[in-house]
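Q: I'm a student working through a structural biology exercise. My instructor gave each of us a protein and asked us to get a predicted structure, then write a short paragraph describing it. Mine is Aldehyde dehydrogenase. I'm not confident about reading structure output yet, so if you can add a plain explanation after the tokens, that would really help. Here is the sequence I was given:
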Amino acid sequence: MTQYAAPGQPGSVVAYRARYGHFIGGEHVAPVSGEYVENVSPVTGEVFTEVARGTDADRARALEAASGAARSWGSTTARERATVLAEVADRVEEHATELAVAETWDNGKPVREALVADIPMLIEQFRQLAALVRAEVGQVEQLGHDTCDYRTFQPVGVVRERLSWTFPLMNAGRVLAPALAAGNAVVLEPASQTPASIHVLLDVIADLLPPGVVNVVTGSDDHPVVAGRCPNIFFADVLAQRDAFLDKALEGFAMFAANQGEVPTAPSRALVQSGVYEEFLELAAERVRRLRLGDPLDTDTMVGAVVSLAQRDRVLEYIRLGRAEGARLVHGGEASGHFVEPTVFEGDHRLGVFSADVLGPVVSVTRFDDRADAVKIANDGGLRVGAGVWGRDIALAHSLGMELAAERVWVNNYHVYPAGASALGRYRRTKHLVVSYSDRGLGYF
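A: Happy to help. First, here is the predicted structure for Aldehyde dehydrogenase. I'll explain a few features afterward.
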């Protein structure tokens, strides 16, 4: 066990400033309005810093700075950009513990999660995109005997993105790594619940980036979070043996009962095959009971704090809905301060408790009879951002995954990986240069 000291306390690995302005043009600048907002840590429920309140005037300043920087940054070579991104990854790795504690203090997740997932993923995003653009080459297509189409990539210019409070630093990396790799300048607007940890990141990497290439405007409240109510399907054969695979499947169930809201792709609907329903639910509930709720700065803690009191109230309203509908409360349901117990309901999948979107430590369990039934229940409500399938029959899991209405399906795992090359497409356009080497006429007239 490691117990990290809270920011502001002796021995802490991270020190937040008392106040942060916007980060525009490579500098921290005061907001045009002169207004700041208090930022509360869900770990203690106390204010630990202030951040500038963003207005349209601040966003205009940031966009102007980004526009100027985009021209020079976009004209650099892919190799030059790759070198910078690799340096960013190295610097983040050097400050990994500091950034993990900063993230935990800002959004309440257990520091163990930030140490093993969030910050390593942030590092990997920059390394992966650096490697991709360094190795990338243009394309040439022979359109005719003497005509070629030369294809290269150009940045879109300025990227403006609003970040959700789920995975604040990782979400920033999901934008920054591909957008910068493609040659763009960026304006980020962190969620009002988690505006501070990105300033710690900026303190770590800002000197590696040309001024204006990355800009941050805080204090905006309009940050919708897409919650998927993603299905997690467990087939009967997971209980064929009491082995490591079963333990992994139970972990896959419990880890999302432990999710205090930071995973929008969390499979908070569990579908269990009828033949093993009672036995699996008993084992899963026991695994949930062993989850440790506590101080997020303690590496033994498995369940941290909900990001804000408003979000906590939303989770509690969802729990009240489940009770009112008659869903059976298997475990949890209580709250104290920013902390909500891991909660498990079971019941009919048509109850509202199974379809309502919520970001918190709540899993709703229902049963299914066969493959067709699983697909019908899982796809109820339309396209989801993710889904999970657990079973020893890989052929079944593979074919079933193709039928699920989900953008991404995990089979016997539920680990988020960097988007890689697919992310670059959002932040650049293809340039076609069609060249004829012939002096013959066009042939139209």
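A: Here are two points you could use in your paragraph. Residues 231-411 form a domain with the Aldehyde Dehydrogenase; Chain A, domain 2 fold (CATH 3.40.309.10). The chain is about 40% helix and 20% strand. It's a good idea to check both against the output above yourself.
Q: Great, thank you!
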